[in-house]
TrEMBL record:
<feature type="region of interest" description="Disordered">
    <location>
        <begin position="1"/>
        <end position="39"/>
    </location>
</feature>
<dbReference type="GO" id="GO:0008270">
    <property type="term" value="F:zinc ion binding"/>
</dbReference>
<dbReference type="InterPro" id="IPR007527">
    <property type="entry name" value="Znf_SWIM"/>
</dbReference>
<protein>
    <submittedName>
        <fullName>SWIM zinc finger family protein</fullName>
    </submittedName>
</protein>
<keyword id="KW-0479">Metal-binding</keyword>
<keyword id="KW-0862">Zinc</keyword>
<feature type="compositionally biased region" description="Polar residues">
    <location>
        <begin position="1"/>
        <end position="14"/>
    </location>
</feature>
<feature type="domain" description="SWIM-type">
    <location>
        <begin position="63"/>
        <end position="95"/>
    </location>
</feature>
<keyword id="KW-0863">Zinc-finger</keyword>
Length: 251
């Protein structure tokens, strides 16, 4: 779980955008022929099942597709061993983010409430792509406009995570506009990154805690893997511990 959000969270829906269950729809079919075309232009409704398979409802019948074995219960697949239009449609909708992949489930983002997909057996707070961040991502603080590098997701809510002052993150006035339920991230300010050099040093940077929506995404994968490991592991000595590492900037 990782993430960044907005001062009060925007209502803009993040990808994937999902249609109502069982509503048959068509997809653009220009340039396609045969089964590939029928997979798009024929009205179909795709619904994921809990076992990773999919129900595909059409005007001519309802079938079950297994995208991992590339099989379908329709005659075209079961009898003629063809890659039928139902199977093709399922693969299209997975690729377009309209339905979860076989190893995913639909969940609700803990920050904005939008639906998203997560690994089927993941537990804990869920964050959508728009609000999720990984260790090493570059973000901007909404309050100070300063740049930071994300170290880790703490696993705590804003009304649970405590700073060195023994106050919860939600207790700070600067976090009044962010939900107390939001997951908290640990990050360091990068307020002196030279724009004309390839290397910037992070020396003795104090770590700070932020509600997810206070951080604005700027660039993912900003820090090298080695730096991410160093920074993410530095929390073991306590929040006020400092760390020294080299941050490689993209040119």
């Amino acid at each position: 779980m990782t993430h960044t959000r907005n001062t009060p969270a925007s209502n803009t829906q993040s990808r994937p955008r999902r249609r109502a269950v069982r509503q048959k729809t068509t997809l653009p079919a220009s340039g396609f022929v045969g089964r590939a075309r029928r997979a798009r232009e024929d009205p179909m409704a795709v619904r994921p099942l809990r076992d990773g398979r999919y129900v595909v409802e059409t005007d001519g019948g309802t079938y079950v597709v297994d995208s991992e074995t590339d099989t379908c219960t329709c005659p075209d697949s079961a009898i003629r061993d063809a890659r039928c239009k139902h199977l093709r449609r399922v693969h299209i909708e997975i690729a377009d983010g309209l339905v979860p992949a076989p190893d995913e489930r639909t969940a609700v983002c803990a920050v904005c409430g939008n639906r998203t997909y997560v690994p089927r057996f993941d537990s804990g707070p869920v964050l959508c792509d728009r609000h999720d961040h990984a260790s090493g991502d570059l973000v901007r603080d909404r309050e100070t406009k300063s740049l930071l590098v994300v170290l880790r997701a703490t696993g705590d809510r804003a009304d649970e995570a405590r700073t060195d002052s023994d106050r919860t993150v939600a207790d700070y006035d600067t976090n009044d506009d962010y939900g107390p339920h939001e997951p908290v991230f640990e990050a360091v300010y990068v307020d002196s990154v030279p724009l004309d050099e390839d290397i910037a040093e992070l020396r003795a940077k104090k770590r700070y805690l932020f509600p997810a929506s206070r951080l604005i995404p700027v660039e993912s994968g900003f820090a090298t893997e080695e730096v991410r490991r160093t920074l993410a592991g530095s929390h073991l000595g306590g929040e006020s511990q400092t760390t020294q590492a080299t941050l490689r900037l993209k040119t």
